[in-house]
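Weekly modeling sync, notes
Attendees: S.R. (lead), two postdocs, one rotation student

Agenda item 3: backlog of single-chain predictions. S.R. asked that every request posted to the team notebook include the full sequence so nobody has to chase files. The rotation student volunteered to paste the first one in as an example of the format we agreed on. Action items at the bottom.

Example entry:
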Amino acid sequence: MGETRDEIINTASKLLKASKTIVLRVNEEKTKYLKVARRSLNIDHITVDDYIFKKVETLLYHSYLRPIITYASETWSLTLGDSKRLMTFERKVLRKNRLNIISYIKCKRLEWFGHVWRANGQVIKEVLVNKINKKRSLGRPRTRWMDVIAQDIKNVEESSFDDAYDREKWRGVVMAAMALNGPIS
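Predicted structure, as returned to the notebook:
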């Protein structure tokens, strides 16, 4: 990354030199550079006297910002601090109390779990189910993704891991979790 083309080429040459030390060959002739503007979203055409209407602002948040923020959130095991920071960010953006981003992430996480749990014989499920024989580090154990999923499922009454094998039943579990957390809008 850099401000000018020369800075980018200089950084890339450093990367190429470093990659040679670990016997990684990169074809310099095929290497391409991407130029990105700082302001990727031009919203000038939807403002009136530099005022963005609330409905448009909400639409922009839900269609543009939230997908960026929650990219790969299905695999996160949120801590209380992470949740507070996400909710603070969302309140700053929307300036109102609506459905929070944490509920959205919980529903997406449950959807992803159902997909992974049904993947019998696939590597993705083997990674999830098998335990790694490794010495545990000192201190409190980190929050594991499966523990977070178990807690999410426990919050939805009368559901278990085995419900994920039936797509329709699991969709009902996700909908129940959504209703428990409020409608996603």
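Discussion: group reviewed the output briefly. Helices lie at 5-21, 54-69, 80-94, 101-117, 123-129, 145-155, 167-181.
Action items: rotation student to repeat for the remaining queue; S.R. to check formatting next week.
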